Prior knowledge:
Elements (H helix, E strand, L loop, with lengths): L3 H27 L4 H21 L3 H20 L4 H13 L11 H17 L12 E8 L2 E6 L3 E8 L4 E4 L2 E6 L15 E8 L5 E6 L1 E8 L1 H7 L1 E2 L6 E7 L2 E6 L3
Parallel strand pairs: 2-11, 5-7
Antiparallel strand pairs: 1-2, 1-8, 3-6, 4-5, 6-7, 9-10, 10-11
Helix pairs in contact: 1-2, 1-4, 2-3, 3-4
Amino acid sequence: xxxxxxxxxxxxxxxxxxxxxxxxxxxxxxxxxxxxxxxxxxxxxxxxxxxxxxxxxxxxxxxxxxxxxxxxxxxxxxxxxxxxxxxxxxxxxxxxxxxxxxxxxxxxxxxxxxxxxxxxxxxxxxxxxxxxxxxxxxxxxxxxxxxxxxxxxxxxxxxxxxxxxxxxxxxxxxxxxxxxxxxxxxxxxxxxxxxxxxxxxxxxxxxxxxxxxxxxxxxxxxxxxxxxxxxxxxxxxxxxxxxxxxxxxxxxxxxx
Length: 256
């Protein structure tokens, strides 16, 4: 069994390889005509990540690495480029988060942590527990330095989309793009800039898209808390208001 110090070192190695793999995928997308050396880099990082997950009995990370392996293997077999094939790879990479390093702890240690937590709750019966049933999950994203809160729905990521357009056309459907034209950059710069886009399909099959530069950790907050913190604004038809947290403002987008 690995020592605790070795596990810490290996967890760092795992995420080092994850960063290398992600960079190699980005390079591959840019240089698709020169694939062989880049696939070698990707295969090396996948192998190292799989070995580390195997050694530490981490089914959680092993499943994600296997999914990455399958997606990349399919890309190699087809030997042609389609943008949506990279979306699945990027989405899986985004699920491998530093915050989940606890998965590298052995099962005995995780059980001890769970037991201590349970005993602490028994010792203080008035201690509130987190009840996610009464909370709403929000996706947090940043666009040109502005932070936005969006009620969570499953999404797909589109990359290298020209900024800032009022809409995008996919499969013959005209989909509105948030925040639309004229946001944060001059007209003369629009043709030069590319953005990532969150593509969301709600329960009624209505599609919406949101420009973003960075995805942050999701929030789980009660509706009552959101209402108590919300400062109403009318800066954009899609914005209900803003919330201040840790000295920063987050703009709440109207749910669809």
